[in-house]
Hints:
Layout: H1 3-16, H2 43-48, H3 58-79, H4 87-93, E1 105-110, E2 113-124, E3 127-135, E4 147-154, E5 162-164, H5 182-190, H6 209-219, H7 237-245, H8 252-256, H9 265-275, H10 292-301, H11 309-312, H12 321-332
Antiparallel strand pairs: 1-2, 1-5, 2-3, 3-4
Helix pairs in contact: 1-3, 5-12, 6-9, 9-10
Amino acid sequence: xxxxxxxxxxxxxxxxxxxxxxxxxxxxxxxxxxxxxxxxxxxxxxxxxxxxxxxxxxxxxxxxxxxxxxxxxxxxxxxxxxxxxxxxxxxxxxxxxxxxxxxxxxxxxxxxxxxxxxxxxxxxxxxxxxxxxxxxxxxxxxxxxxxxxxxxxxxxxxxxxxxxxxxxxxxxxxxxxxxxxxxxxxxxxxxxxxxxxxxxxxxxxxxxxxxxxxxxxxxxxxxxxxxxxxxxxxxxxxxxxxxxxxxxxxxxxxxxxxxxxxxxxxxxxxxxxxxxxxxxxxxxxxxxxxxxxxxxxxxxxxxxxxxxxxxxxxxxxxxxxxxxxxxxxxxxxx
Length: 334
């Protein structure tokens, strides 16, 4: 979860409490409006510091919100102490900012003392909004006001008020980058050409001959039945027989030899070239530095391969699943 997502979650938790009224006694602490009174009894004290029931609770509310998002240990780390119950303590522990940002803890100053606190939820230039505990909906700074309210201020009208910026970054986890080939896997799944995406999900692992053959067989109409098919030899044997019948595979023994081995770039190029109409005439039998170059040049002419250097650096090298899915999608218009 990113820093911004964490701040959004903090604000959502705080806003969900708007309308909560402190209680006259320990009864109905978890009902927003029942047993309303002016004695500072709240569910926030009940969960954060029960022995403080009956005391002003604006800072306790901030602590409670952070606990909901980060847990007690996380809130303690963010607040640099636990629980946050006294505004001047924060002024001693943190750098104080003159201008707010979303997610800041605001500490309001009146008569030379920090007396009230809340969470900043919105900024627009000089204007900002908060959610505060132990306040009221009346304009201005209302400490010990009895409820959770959304408030609105202009910073320039609040001399001495400061903003504290907890280190939310320390809890942020950057989004895992999406693999470039994920879109190709998603396309093949959507086209119902891959029914078991978990087999392909590690896109940087290498493709086996059996996996490559099975997908190409599916993309070319599915496995043909044949009297030669014998899955007892290997599950992919009927697939190889099917591809032989389609004219895509010509030497079944090459493919039946250790079918669970990783497919080479050369065999991959040959398989895709054969499945897309075969090698172009000008390359058939042409002398080359490697037999697979004719397949590569054929695929380049078909505009199926656009980065030949990624293939001809080592024709006997392995093929990553992501690269295989990319060339398959290109070859079959998926």
